[in-house]
Amino acid sequence: MRDTAEQSGQDEEKSPRERLRERRTAAFRAAERVLSRGGYHGTLRERLTLLQDAAPEVYDLDERADIYGNGVVAALEERVAALLGTEAAAFFPTGTMAQQVALRCWAGRTGDRTVALHGLAHPEVHERGALSVVSGLRTVRLTSEPRLPTADEVRAFEEPFGALMLELPLRDAGFVLPTWEELNEVVEAARERDAVVHFDGARLWESTVHFGRSLDETAGLADSVYVSFYKSLDGFGGAALAGPHTLIEEAKAWRHRYGGMVFQQFPTALSALVGLERELPRLPGYVRHARVVAAALREGFAESGVAWARVHPEVPHTHEFRVWLPYEADVLAEAAALQAEETGSMLFASAWDTGGPGLSFTEVTIRSQGLEWTADDVRAAVADFVARVASVAGG
């Protein structure tokens, strides 16, 4: 009885927004139909079972476990280097560490600690100033417009910089990419300024459809590339830095100094190899179906009479994109939870964020679960969702 009372008291202490978030999370877990269900949402048992079942397909489990980066970790590094067409690659526990090390190494080689990047780039928005606070680098913003920097902006920037960092795709602008021609022009503009080019390619894996080029051809434009193993490949975590042998050897020394020389990492490395084997070949299909879903969303909102709705980009560049609607975030989150609770289908599973007065956006991701949704399914779900939004907004 006391436990129940204590729980009730704890629930009362939570804000309405916290309780709504917990409801939305529970509704997502219980929903029968979603557009995406990343493995990280699973239980420990589910994650371990998947690894136990899939790992024998990608590595000899009778080999000795890794110690400080050998064995399966070294095999993963070789696989990544081969996929990206680089001389070498180094495994890192996080992308934040990998990119700090890469840019620090380049600063030592160029003699310039200034890094030019986008105002919405991950280090500027999500890493608490790590490039400057931890690594002693200085960042300058080429632009904060919701698109990648242009070649003209690179050429005209008034200060020198030793490295240009490009996030491909730019997540906080809506997972946007430049055209292949624009990307080549930007890289060439940096070269004209004697700057090295580093790709934040956390989601580079799914960019091949938009560019119409292979992974190695895309990575070959840059001097170094970082890729993630969990954002699109559904691994447990981890990242890799790829580039020339000399850079990677130096990066491994800095990895040790930064605390990234982990004793054993075989679960994460194995999950990354599974992701490369299973998810990487599926990503182009996810991208193509994201375009079907995006078109159906636009049509559904138009048919439902929503005064202003946007899917951005209109034709998604990857398997992820944003949806903007003219309502408060809490109204949309409540409607999303209700839809899942009452129909078993959850059209919008990610959080809704405020984008301005009376305007909110969410991110939509298409994975294998989303392939089951036809355009008609999406339009019907939109109609149901809009009716729930109207009911919630009307009180």
TrEMBL record:
GO cellular component, one term: cytosol
Entry-linked InterPro entries: ArAA_b-elim_lyase/Thr_aldolase (IPR001597), PyrdxlP-dep_Trfase (IPR015424), PyrdxlP-dep_Trfase_major (IPR015421), PyrdxlP-dep_Trfase_small (IPR015422)
Domain annotation Aromatic amino acid beta-eliminating lyase/threonine aldolase: ranges: 71-298
GO BP, one annotated term: glycine biosynthetic process
Cofactor: pyridoxal 5'-phosphate
Family per record: Belongs to the threonine aldolase family.
Protein name: Threonine aldolase
Species this protein is from: Streptomyces phaeofaciens
